[in-house]
Amino acid sequence: MGITGIGSVQTYIYNSQTGKLSSKDGSPDEFVDYFNGTLSAESSTILNGYDTAKKSGIKNVIEMAYAKGSFQGIKAWVPTDAIECEITCKIVSGEEFTYTVNGDRVLTCYAPVALSLEELEGWGEDMPFKTHQSKAYDSATNSMNFAVGDVIDLGNGYKLKIGEKRVEVDGYGSGNAADDEKVRHLEYGLNALIHFADQQWPAACIWEEHTPMLLSLLEELGIDTGREFSLNGTKCVVENGKIGEAGNKWFIPSDAHDKALKRKEELLAQLLCAQK
Questions:
Q1: I need a labelling partner for 92 at 20 to 30 A (CA). Which of 55, 127, 167, 243 fits?
Q2: Exposed / middle / buried, residue 228 (Cβ in 10 Å: 0-12, 13-18, 19+)
Q3: How many CB atoms are located within 10 Å of the residue 266 CB?
Q4: Nearest in space to 6 (alpha carbons), one of 66, 49, 68
């Protein structure tokens, strides 16, 4: 069967009467023996963490296919009188496995990654901004940078200064109390936006109440927020009135997600016989 990993596509036959799995062509297969309980993980020289995840996924598919009672399972793919069914597993990544029964996809399993303590270290209010290179708006790429040292003059007596760790306001008292309160909210919002653009905070940290004024600021600086734009190298979109990272399906920033996924995939690739 070879080493299981990303991109692997493997097909098996399940017999509901015996409750056993077999390879499609009937040839010997260590995963089949492992699934059926006739081979221990410690005895195999090729099985790894991907095989453990695949075993769990196939068991879920079998339970769905042969469910009884009010939940009828996936009967569209497995007739009521069927003794055997063909199950195929494709490993897309360390967090995504897809399963088909008799040629039709029935299940996609997602196992989201989790950040390690090392990857979480530094997240918080005192986390320094990463971007130190200023970049004015570029219409060709609909992009710009907010960098440490930049000063944004709001033109009404207030200035936003981007420090090492946070945004600060120069000019409090230039207007009335309502003006001070408004620019204070803009200060908080821009602080979150820059941490988000620097891949340090998730988009959820940009509060909904701050988003309209942030979008107005971006538009004044030239950004077309009606289409994909880039801030500090992060591709952004506005959906349902919220600023988010384009293509990011997860809560955490894509940089952190990719590092955590790589770590997870390295762990999954380890042979079961070597794991203690």
A1: 243
A2: middle
A3: 11
A4: 49
| Residue found under tokens 């979150």 | 192
Q: Is 4 exposed, middle or buried (0-12, 13-18, 19+ CB in 10 A)?
A: buried
Identify the top-confidence range among 102-116, 218-232, 258-272. 218-232
pLDDT digits (tens, 9 = 90+) for 162-187: 999 999 999 999 899 999 999 999 99
Query: How far, rounded to the nearest angstrom, does the alpha carbon of residue 14 sit from its chain's CA centroid?
Result: 32
Residue 110: pLDDT over 50: yes
3-state secondary structure 96-114: EEEEEECCEEEEEEECCCC
Contacts of the segment 179-188: beta carbons below 8 A, 24+ positions apart:
182/213, 183/154, 183/158, 185/209, 185/210, 185/213, 186/160, 186/210, 186/213, 186/214, 186/217, 187/160
Residue whose tokens read 């098996």: 12
Amino acid at 217: L
pLDDT, tens only, 31-44: 999 999 999 988 99
CB 231 within 8 A of CB 145: yes
3-state secondary structure the chain: CCCCCCCCEEEEEEECCCCEEEECCCCCCHHHHHHHCCCCHHHCCCCEHHHHHHHHHHHHHHHHHCCCCCCCCCCCCCCCCCCEEEEEEEEEECCEEEEEECCEEEEEEECCCCCCHHHHCCCCCCCCCCCCCCEEEECCCCEEECCCCCEEECCCCCEEEECCCCEEEECCCCCCHHHHHHHHHHHHHHHHHHHHHCCCCCHHHCCCCCHHHHHHHHHHCCCCCCCCEEECCEEEEEECCEEEECCCCCCCCHHHHHHHHHHHHHHHCCEHHHCC
